[in-house]
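We treat protein structure as text, and this decision shapes the records that our systems exchange. The remainder of this section carries one protein's record, kept here as part of the documentation:
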Amino acid sequence: MKKTFLITVIALCVATAMQAQPKSRPGKAVEEAKKSETTLSERAKAQYTGQLSAPEDVVWKRDIYRTLDLTKEKNAALYYPVEPLGDRVNMFTLIIRLVADGKIPAYEYRSDGNELFTPENRYKVNELLDKFYIYFEEKGGHYVIADADIPSGDVLSYFIKESTYYDQRTATTATKVTAICPVLHRSGDFGDEVTKYPMFWLSYDDVSTYFGMTPVMTSSYNNVSNMSLDDYFATHLYDGEIYKTANLQNRLLSDYCKNDTALTEERARIEGELRGFEHHLWGTEEPDTTTVEEPAVRGRKAKLPAAKSGKAAATKEAAGKGKASKATTASTPKKKEAAPKNTDSRSSGSYSVRREKR
């Protein structure tokens, strides 16, 4: 009886312990395991990133939106190779693979064109791929996309957001890319008109680590891939035109610039403001080009002009002597003739003292 009682008590304790185990714990463990497979640790992110995120408590910041035309030579590193070539891929192929694997989130491009990195605005992978007609297969919870189905050749431009700020803690100014949006260029049914489709926004902090592990070739002269994609953006090797600045009315430059000339002038004005901020911040003065003559030093002989040689110099010297002689003759007064002496002492105004005594 005692043995039966002990076995019953042990069985009840085991059942109670099993009931106390929360059901969500095994599911949470599986979720954490999946998450660790698709994300990098903080140590890995710090090792491969080329630039840190911009601080939030800065005293001055200016946000600029640019468009990168991949047909330009400076931006060609983001477009080639169009199809994967060994371990080399272009930027859009890398991005779409990271999004499909769930390693980075993609956020919806809103109607106002601004980025909003919130969970509510995050795309589901299958919805994103269906929206832009990218064929995929789902295998074991993963989305597999063939290289031929990635429209990397149609992504001919990007929107990027730059933040120029002054960090009062380090007393430095910096410009960093904070967001990227690939733009799909697709022609109509007859191929005569090209329509641009902004696809989605990416936070640069989410992709910078993977960019740091992706080599790119930035020169046609030197074909060695000695720079990462993150270094390319950190050193601002791209060439982008401003199409919007962060403003209260959320207006594009094209909304208030009437023609191309006004648009070009407005872009130049904004670029000048960005350069002028750092110029005025440190109080840089223009160099003084005023010529100041040195004071004369006592005992120093004045330098005489070098004597001119040749017939012209002799002629000039003779002419100078002639002028000097004429001037001397003209300025010398003629001597007056002496008046005759008066012998009569009485008629003169003077007389002899000896005669007066007599």
